Known about the structure:
Elements: E1 4-9, H1 17-26, E2 32-36, E3 40-46, E4 49-55, H2 61-69, H3 74-87, E5 95-103, E6 106-115, E7 121-122, H4 124-127, H5 135-150, E8 154-155, E9 163-168, E10 171-176, E11 182-183, H6 189-195, H7 203-217, H8 221-250, H9 259-271, H10 277-295
Antiparallel strand pairs: 1-5, 2-3, 3-4, 4-6, 5-6, 7-9, 8-11, 9-10
Amino acid sequence: MRSYTHVKIHPSYLFITDFxxxxxxxxxxxxxxxxxxxxxxxxxxxxxxxLVVKRFKVLFWINRIAYSFVRKSKACRSYExxxxxxxxxxxxxxxxxxxxxxxxxLLSESYYISMYxxxxxxxxxxxxxxxxxxxxxxxxxxxxTAKMHEMEIMHIDYSPGNILVKEQNKDFxxxxxxxxxxxxxxxxxxxxxxxxxxxxxxREALNEISSHYARFRKFDVKKFVICTTQYSDNYFxxxxxxxxxxxxxxxxxxxxxxxxxxxxxxxQMSSFFWLTQKARxxxxxxxxxxxxxxxxxxxxxxxxxxESKD
Length: 310
């Protein structure tokens, strides 16, 4: 099966066709790395434009088949969803184009190219704690999110790292990034509070944001805040277990004895009334040791502390 490269360029930026056509060959050696993890982001200056190029993680063979014949690539979705967001009147980085490389008829690499969002930062600091200095931000952010949802735009990975902000003329300007996972549909009460799950490790900050949001959407405020808190707590509980397991796995322990199972077992045994006080204390002590060794560093919401009402 043949190998080829597909390049899609926004009509307004055809003058950088040569750069995009040769980008896959020069990506490894050129450009300034601004993020390196699962995906790699690099900054380029081309004909006076500051561009961000995102190379998506190399796919496993099963995903290569899926993205070749069943689903659009992440690069393609990033481009098309960015255009759709802009059409609806919200802000995201101006899409420039995307590149898909195929080897043996299957997708092997993909790149998304957009304009660089200058003078903007993620909202991490603003939502990390219930700081009084960010009260105006939290209300503005809640209103922005409500407006976005009413436009039937929902970012599936609505987390602090994927939302940019800058203050301008005593107002807050927001922009969405990493937009390959989006849904354009009605956002119901239930869908909305689930979308808030990853926003903040601070219950107080999240409660304030969700209460403002509920008022803007004319939802039952008390019910919405309770549902948001419970769902977010559960998200951070599972997240802590997942990261603890990775630590456990790095130490070559068995899957069957991973922290999640042991934590639940020790917790259950320490609460059994038919055990002696000494036996319950033994299991409580083992749970503390397990928590401090593997879970505590990842329990950002402190939902798994041995003394919590989990």
